[in-house]
Write a structure and sequence with these properties.
264 residues; alpha/beta; Arc Repressor Mutant, subunit A; Rossmann fold; 2 domains; three-stranded antiparallel sheet
Length: 264
Amino acid sequence: MAEGSGKVMRDTSERRRQITAMLKSRGSVQVVALSEQFNVSMQTIRKDLHYLEEHGIATRAYGGAISSDVVNVSAEPPIEAKRVSHIEEKERIGQLAASMIKPGDSVILDSGTTALQIARFLPDDEDITVVTNDFDVLSALAQKRKIKVVMLGGELRRKNMAFYGAQTVAALQELVFDKLFLGVDGFDVERGITTHHEPEAQLNRKMVESARQVIAVTDSSKFGKVCLHRIIDVSEVDMLITDNDAPDHVREAATRLGFALHIA
């Protein structure tokens, strides 16, 4: 074997070893980021991920891969399914969250069916300002006569009826809000809060930067799930509002990491 071929094999083996370690520690990896980190083509990274999938280490996902050690990973359900899933829990969470919004508050409602319930229960007060990127949330808020509503522009993603893109992120650049109500696709104490859609993760991180208080809202079906795109660590949340089926390890994490836990 030529010396150059041996070096390539060693480099490939070492790269795959490092990617495996990243999968185990983070729960997921992304093709673009790995390509930049290892200074190789995205096609090479896709071959690496295909190799790891064949060996039971990873499961391929759009734009990257998720560790096979992660349980309860599923594809993003259609919005029609989300609207009828865990309705009672989402209503209770939405009602409790809405009761925390007071006159004078400026808030961000993230996209999602739980945020929609917050909008429904929100008091109609002219001293409350709500910013959102979600079409259904906008429709609910439009039924109220006094509340101030700001819609973030961007490109409509019909899969969840919300707007994303550089324009959406830029609209938040100079704004500061009292509260962010952050929806959740995946909530894992070790691997953080995650979502299926990369532009959503980017927008959510900007929302977190713009808010004085970050409040995660989710029903208990999302606990233990990990999606491809990480938003923030659980320790960066100030408060979590969920239902009574929250597992013990989430309740323990609230004490250990210092965020407030409210059960609806």
